[in-house]
């Protein structure tokens, strides 16, 4: 019951971050600069150390997680480019075939990214529930860490949706889903547990996914609209924010 109650705070934190993003959507390029730093930092300061810890604790080959990381990066890259190829028009001009892209952003890309973040939020809830199965103290610490970074999760979800030409209503729907899934994740731990070797592979795959949307999607898109020292500072702020959360919370 304590795990369910604490998961309610993840809902509040996620919604707060997402609503902030919606309210300031006119400055989306600045938000993208910050969230790109957040996503990249989450991979290196949060997920990868967890992969190494799980691998050492369960005597698993860490290379498997990094193979999953590369697969996750390439999987989302191929998925994104495939969607864009389906929206390419071929025009015949003066006897030559000219490939003209309608746009390098498409709503489906935002939906795919937001869905991936929602699934990760579900597993955040699973982590809280499993922590409480070990001890209330561990469960509470995990819940505090999740609540601390869920503000950026909500912000990331809205940013991905809006930057890929989705409207505010659709962005809000996925924000709501991202806010609810940790609660569902906690509830699911009353029914099953995740094998540690599967968790290792999932974390690797998701790290690759986050690296792609942070470094290859959000960051280039933000700087294509503007370029300033403020944006560089925001990216570094996102990195520092996650470093502080993962080290001291």
Q: How would you describe what is shown here?
A:
The protein is mostly helical and 249 residues long. The chain has one domain (2-87, 116-248). Helix content is 82%, strand content 5%. The protein is built from eight helices and two strands; from the N terminus they run αααββααααα. The chain has a two-stranded antiparallel ribbon with strand order 1-2. The longest helix is centred in the first third of the chain and has 31 residues, at 28-58. The radius of gyration is 19 Å and the shape is globular. Residues 89-102 have low confidence and may be disordered.
Entry summary:
The protein has 249 residues and is mainly α. The chain has eight helices and two strands; from the N terminus they run αααββααααα. 82% of the residues lie in helices and 5% in strands.
């Amino acid at each position: 019951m304590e795990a369910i109650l604490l998961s309610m705070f993840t809902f509040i934190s996620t919604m707060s971050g997402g609503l902030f993003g919606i309210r300031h959507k006119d400055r989306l390029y600045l938000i993208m600069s910050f969230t790109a730093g957040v996503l990249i930092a989450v991979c290196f300061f949060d997920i990868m150390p967890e992969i190494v810890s799980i691998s050492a604790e369960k005597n698993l080959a860490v290379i498997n997680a990094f193979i999953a990381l590369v697969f996750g990066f390439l999987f989302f890259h191929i998925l994104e480019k495939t969607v864009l190829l389906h929206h390419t028009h071929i025009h015949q001009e003066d006897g030559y075939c000219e490939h003209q892209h309608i746009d390098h952003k498409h709503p489906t890309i935002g939906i795919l990214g937001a869905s991936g973040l929602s699934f990760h939020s579900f597993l955040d809830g699973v982590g809280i529930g499993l922590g409480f199965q070990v001890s209330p103290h561990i469960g509470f610490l995990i819940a505090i860490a999740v609540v601390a970074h869920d503000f950026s999760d909500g912000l990331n979800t809205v940013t991905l949706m809006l930057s890929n030409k989705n409207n505010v209503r659709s962005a809000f729907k996925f924000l709501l889903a991202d806010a609810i899934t940790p609660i569902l994740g906690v509830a699911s731990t009353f029914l099953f547990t995740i094998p540690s070797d599967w968790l290792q592979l999932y974390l690797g795959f998701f790290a690759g996914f986050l690296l792609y949307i942070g470094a290859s999607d959000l960051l280039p898109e933000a700087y294509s609209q503007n370029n300033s020292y403020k944006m560089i500072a925001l990216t570094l702020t996102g990195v520092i924010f996650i470093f502080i959360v993962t080290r001291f919370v």
